[in-house]
Each structure stands twice: as C-alpha cells, then as structure tokens.
Specification:
The protein has twelve helices and no strands. With 286 residues, the chain is mainly α. Helix 1 packs parallel to helix 11, helix 2 runs antiparallel to helix 8 and helix 5 packs antiparallel against helix 10.
Amino acid sequence: MWVLFAFGSAFFAGVTSILAKCGIRRTDSNVATAIRTVVVLVMGWVMVVVVGSYSGIREISAGTLTFLVLSGLATGASWLCYFRALQLGDVNKVVPIDKSSIILTILLAFLFLREPISVSKAVGLVAIGAGTYLMIQRKSGAPRGKEEGKALVYAACSAVFASLTSILGKVGISGVESNLGTAIRNGVVLVMAWVVVLVTGKLREVAKVPRGELGFICLSGLATGASWLCYYRALQEGPASVVVPIDKLSILVTIAFSAVVFHERLTVKAGAGLGLITAGTLVMLI
C-alpha cells in the first residue's frame, strides 16, 4: 500500500510546481509560499481530525518532536528556495536540480539510517546525476542569463534542504501517526514562512496579490498538502531509499504540464537527460 501512496505523492508534487509557477508571475515568491502554507496547514489538520489522530499529540516524545521541528525548518527553507527558483527560471531547468536531491538523500540514508546502497541504486544515482547535468545545459551558443544563474543556485539549495527533510522526517514520524506528524511539521513551516515575509518587509504585498494568482497559489497548497500526506504515509511504512525515488518521478508530470501550460520544449540533450533520470530512478526500484 505504501507504494501507492508514494506514487500519489509524485503526481501531486508534479502538479504543485505548475500551479505554483502560475501563481508567482507577479506575486513575490516568499509571499506566495507563506499563503500556500496556510492552505497546506489547514488541510493537514483537517486530516488529523478526520482520522482522529489528534489525541496522539500527548504521546509524542521530546526527541521525536525535535526531529519534526527540524524537518519543518528544512522543508520551509526548501520551499522558499524552490519557489524563488521557479520565479526566476524555467521549470525544465529548476525541477531537475530540485529532484537531484535524491542523490544526497540516498547517501544520508546510508550514513544515518543504515539503509544499504545496492549496485542498482548506485547505477541509478550515476544516471540521475548525468541526466540532471544534461537537462540544465544551455543551448549551443546561448549565454546563461543572470536570472537563470540565480535560479539554478536557489534550485540547488532547495535540493539540499529537501534531502534533509526526507531524513529528518523519516526519523521524526517513527511512532507518530503520519497525518499528525505532517500537520505538526507544517505548523513549523507556516511560522518560518511568515517570519521571512515580515523580515523582508513584504507583509503589505499580501493584500495586493492578484485574485487569479491567489487561486493558483491556493490550488498549489492543496496539491502540496495531498503530496505530503501521501509522502509521509509512504515514508512511515516503506524505506526512505525507495519512497524518495518514486516521489522524484514527479518530474515526468511537471515536464509534461510545463510543455502544455508554458510551452517549454526540451532540447534533444535535455530529452536524453530526462530519459536518464527516469531510467536511473526506475533502476533504483529494482
């Protein structure tokens, strides 16, 4: 059953990127992140009430709560970097870098969770790394713009924090009902996101968000909530080294929608890179 939840997480994560990109054309990325986090938080706690797991709050140990908070901080940092990257660059360049977090996640799972790295996983990691490199290459003779360079840096930071999120989240939800654990960490993300909005002086911009973009931001929050609920349920029942690769297949959903919505087309080299990333991910599931 956890495999189905992992694939569900991948689908909703793929949709999230497209909806978010539509919602940050004129809206500041930090403001958008803060708004969508409200939606994610509400959705998470609604699920807690529905499944009746709120009573488990009293049973959460200090150690588990610490890891949930750390996971929430890592998630918040990842989201802030990711949506800033999406605002500055093309989806087809940002998403591959963000999804490359799987490489660091597997290594961290090996070091801290003692999850072994098989030959197939090692081959998969190499393929994903090579595929990511191909996808972010510029067209022949085309200079890399300043904004694009910043987008790639933010995407790389997002990948690092995303890998930390997976490891900390895996430890934090041991012994805790997955919906409750997700809701708690989303509360941390909410606080972090709004603190960033306040510190950067962007609070007044919340009221100026265009209605159309606000709708996309909220839909992005719903998709994110669905993705994380599925993701943490899968992490609770399955190994992180398998759940994470499945979740990263969301890149296929994102690339497909970006071609339809934003008319972003892959070059031959980028297409080969996408093929390597997909093949490498599938090999890791063997």
